[in-house]
Amino acid sequence: MISIIDYGIGNLRSVEKALWSLGIEAKITSDVKEIKASKGIILPGVGAFPAAMANLRERGLDFFLKEEVKSGKPLIGICLGMQLLFDSSDEVRYTEGLGLIDGHVKKFDIKEKVPHMGWNKLKFNVPSETLKGITEGSYVYFVHSFYAQTDNANVNAYAEYEIEVPAIVSKENVIGFQFHPEKSGEVGLNILNNLKGLIR
């Protein structure tokens, strides 16, 4: 079973529905015992970085998630959930993140329209199990105004949006998707389905 963390931040049901459609048992929960008993954790999220981190801290989930990662459990962040995996963000004000992947989240400073919203192509970088069976150039769906700056070695795929935007990142058992796989059609479902090989 995969736990989808309920911490007062949206897009939980769509992720749960997508996983069940793939035959992956998933449950929305904030119960520490249930999360501890699960084989993997998904940290979804839409909204602002400071509010999301405050919600995690209020529930004691920030420290708990770090401990679960240390134990070897896979943690997957989606959209804002991916950004929370990094050291810090400038959104609204400087806020520390979970610090599970080295890097900083900052607002786009580009000529293109912000937010980066809509379909964009994946440009592969460091190989990853999450991209098994996925064709380079496949389109996935993005909605975000901030992006992660991290070491190239942590980036499995980029999207081009005037600059190279990390779309999939990973470090050991921590994975992040900047796009919404649950809203990315067949490609997104195939990426989620690849999690089966990572969550044992």
TrEMBL record:
Its main location: cytoplasm. Residues 4-187 form the Glutamine amidotransferase domain. InterPro entries: Class_I_gatase-like, GATASE, Imidazole-glycPsynth_HisH. Pathway: Amino-acid biosynthesis; L-histidine biosynthesis; L-histidine from 5-phospho-alpha-D-ribose 1-diphosphate: step 5/9. GO terms for cellular component: cytoplasm. It catalyses: L-glutamine + H2O = L-glutamate + NH4(+); 5-[(5-phospho-1-deoxy-D-ribulos-1-ylimino)methylamino]-1-(5-phospho-beta-D-ribosyl)imidazole-4-carboxamide + L-glutamine = D-erythro-1-(imidazol-4-yl)glycerol 3-phosphate + 5-amino-1-(5-phospho-beta-D-ribosyl)imidazole-4-carboxamide + L-glutamate + H(+). The active site is at residues 79, 180, 182. GO terms for biological process: L-histidine biosynthetic process. Pfam families: GATase. Keywords: Amino-acid biosynthesis, Cytoplasm, Glutamine amidotransferase, Histidine biosynthesis, Hydrolase, Lyase. GO terms for molecular function: glutaminase activity; imidazoleglycerol-phosphate synthase activity; lyase activity. Its EC number is 4.3.2.10, 3.5.1.2. It is found in: Cytoplasm. PROSITE patterns: GATASE_TYPE_1 (PS51273). IGPS catalyzes the conversion of PRFAR and glutamine to IGP, AICAR and glutamate. The HisH subunit catalyzes the hydrolysis of glutamine to glutamate and ammonia as part of the synthesis of IGP and AICAR. The resulting ammonia molecule is channeled to the active site of HisF. Heterodimer of HisH and HisF. This is Imidazole glycerol phosphate synthase subunit HisH. It comes from Clostridium manihotivorum. The lineage of its organism: Bacteria, Bacillati, Bacillota, Clostridia, Eubacteriales.
